[in-house]
Amino acid sequence: MAVSGSTSVGEIDVSSINLLKGGVELDLNGKYDEATCFYQEGTKLLVEAHKAISEKCKLTEHRQQLQEHLDRPGAQDRTNFLSQEKDDAKKVTKIKIEENSTGHSYDKLFGHYLHQHVTSIEVDDPYIRTDFQINNFQRFCELIVGKKIPVKTIVLKTKLINSHQKESLEKIKKSLDRNKIELTIEHSPTLHDREIRLSTGIVIGLGRGLDIFHECEILSQEYYNLDLRRCHDTAVTITHKNLTRDATS
C-alpha cells in the first residue's frame, strides 16, 4: 500500500497500526516469521505516512511512533533468531554417543535449542514404561521448566501398557500444571520412531529415545547428575523440519 492522491495519511495510519497490532499478536503466539512480515509492512506504511506529513507537530508524533516500533524490546533478538533458524534449516547435526561414555546430559545434547522462542514441544517415544524410563522423561521436563522458557504445551506420544505407568505420568502432568505447562499424553500402540519436535521447527532424532542412560542406584551421584551417567551406544540427529521435508519430497 503506497501513499497516493486518493489515500489519506489517516487511512495509512489505521492500516499501519492494524498491521503492527497483528504483528504483536502473532509475536506473542510464537509465530515469528509471520509477525516479522507484519512488523515490516506496518513500519513501511508508517515511513510512507511520515514522508507525506507536512505539519510539524504531527511529524514529531509520527517520528516518535515509528521509533517506538523500531525499538520494541526483543526486536533485535527476533531478527537474530530468524537468522539462526534459517541457518539451522540448512544443516544436520549428528552426535555419536559411545557405549559407557559420560557427559551427555539432555542439556548438553540439545539444551541450546530450548530457548525463549520455543512455545510447544512434542515427544514421540514408545518406551516410557519402566520407572527408570519415566524418570528420564521427568528429568527432560525438569530441564524445560528450569530453562524458564515460554513453553505452554508438551505432547507425549507413547505406548501405555499398565496402570502404574499411567499413574506415574499423571503425577508428572500435575507437576507441570503447577508450572503452567499442559502435558497431553497420547497412546500409540504402533509407535516406533523416537524424536522430539520443537515449535521452532527443530527436530531431534533419538536413536534410543530418552532412554540413553544405563540404570543407576537412586542414592548414587550419577542419579542426580545426568552428565555423570554412563550411556548406551546410540546417536542423536538434530535437524530442521524444512530440511527433513525437502529430503523426503
UniProtKB/TrEMBL annotation:
<protein>
    <submittedName>
        <fullName>MIT domain-containing protein 1</fullName>
    </submittedName>
</protein>
<dbReference type="InterPro" id="IPR032341">
    <property type="entry name" value="MITD1_C"/>
</dbReference>
<dbReference type="InterPro" id="IPR036181">
    <property type="entry name" value="MIT_dom_sf"/>
</dbReference>
<dbReference type="Pfam" id="PF16565">
    <property type="entry name" value="MIT_C"/>
</dbReference>
<feature type="domain" description="MITD1 C-terminal phospholipase D-like">
    <location>
        <begin position="103"/>
        <end position="240"/>
    </location>
</feature>
<dbReference type="InterPro" id="IPR052817">
    <property type="entry name" value="MIT_domain_contain_protein1"/>
</dbReference>
<dbReference type="InterPro" id="IPR038113">
    <property type="entry name" value="MITD1_C_sf"/>
</dbReference>
